[in-house]
Amino acid sequence: MKKTLVISNPTIDTINTRRAIRKYKAGMPDKDMIVQILDAGMMAPSAMNKQPWKFYVLRDKDLIKLISKEIAEVAFKDFIKPGLKGIFHAAKQLLHVAHDFNFHLLHDPVFHGAPVVIFITAPRDNEWAPIDIGMCAQNIMLCAKSLGLDSCPVGFGKFVSHTRYYSKLSIPGNEMVLLSITLGYGDEHPDIHKREGNKIVFVG
User: Fold this and answer.
1) Which pTM was predicted?
2) pLDDT in tens, 57-91
3) Which 3 state secondary structure label does DSSP give 13?
4) CATH top-level class for 20-184?
5) Would you kindly state where each structural domain of the chain is located, as residue ranges?
6) 17 contacts: CB under 8 Å, gap ≥ 6
7) Full DSSP string of 79-141
8) What b/e string do you get for 34-63 counting C-beta neighbours within 10 Å, with b at 16 or more?
9) How far apart are CA 40 and CA 46, in angstroms?
10) Are 182 and 114 within 8 A, CB to CB?
């Protein structure tokens, strides 16, 4: 049986060492570093080169906590099936009960105490935007890791539009939030999750 050739380089190492981080130190990343990370995001491919992304960078820790708590309330009120089993399952997903519990969950259940939250929007009429935003987000998280920062994609961030504080982000009505990403200096070192096999099919 032919042995698979394993190649290592900085790009592959960054991909393999990036983790979703849900516990952060208090230090604020430099603004120029944030801009460089978002510039990397904008280098992602996009359908017909429309580059639909726009970034709203929130660094106000008090506002982050307020939005986080309201998103959690919206999630529990509108998106949870009735019954204790449904409530527990949703709480486990939202608060990551399976993950190591940390103090930030009490005050910031969605964004985990991150000093920076990036809300990524796209035009409402762009049907390919979700795919484009996904590729853009991966660029952002890999660039952050290469610069010594950590991150986590937070799907619940899209529910910011259901909160009383949405207007503070100054997002126009023709845009919608598709994803949020937390950013900061990580304060944990989670192990890699086991990857499932049998996902590669060679045809021809």
Assistant:
1) 0.86
2) 999 999 999 999 999 988 777 655 555 455 555 55
3) helix
4) alpha beta
5) 20-184
6) 145
7) S--SSHHHHHHHHHHHHTTTSPP-THHHH-TTTTT-SEEEEEEEETT-TTHHHHHHHHHHHHH
8) beebbebbeebebeeeeebbebbebbebee
9) 13
10) yes
